[in-house]
Amino acid sequence: TELYYIFIQYADTIEAVVSTQSTGGAAVVAPSLAVDHFLALVIPLHTYWGMEQVFLDYIHVKPVAVVVGWALKILTAASVIALLYFNQHDIGITQACKDVWNIKRDEELD
Fold first, then answer.
1. Pair 87, 33: CB distance under 8 Å
2. I want to staple 48 with a disulfide (CB 3.0 to 4.6 A). Which of 6, 60, 69, 76 is the partner?
3. What is the structure's pLDDT at 20?
């Protein structure tokens, strides 16, 4: 439980670091499978923390909060698994972002 209290004490700092890293700066500087895997973990984690705060602020009925909390955990885990699978068996997150970014440019060249 001591580790939990340390995490709670520094949760805002940890979340700020994670949200800064999830902007993809590393993906631009050094795209690789390691960066893709890092993003596959960080992006769903950042989303989980944000949605958890929304649910804590607006859902006050205990049974509903429990169900929504578990649904959020399951969706976050599924997102991590799906992104890791996408990184291993397809082009990866960074290349997918580059491809989406270049769609308009490719259309102009045709």
1. yes
2. 76
3. 58
Distance in angstroms (rounded) separating the CA atoms of residues 40 and 30 = 16
Q: Global pTM?
A: 0.73
Residue type, 47: T
Q: What are phi and psi of 90, to 5 degrees?
A: -140, -150
3-state secondary structure the chain: CHHHHHHHHCHHHHHHHHHHHCCCHHHHHCCCHHHHHHHHHHHHHHHHHHHHHHHHHHCCCHHHHHHHHHHHHHHHHHHHHHHHHHHHHCCCHHHHHHHHHCHHHHHHHC
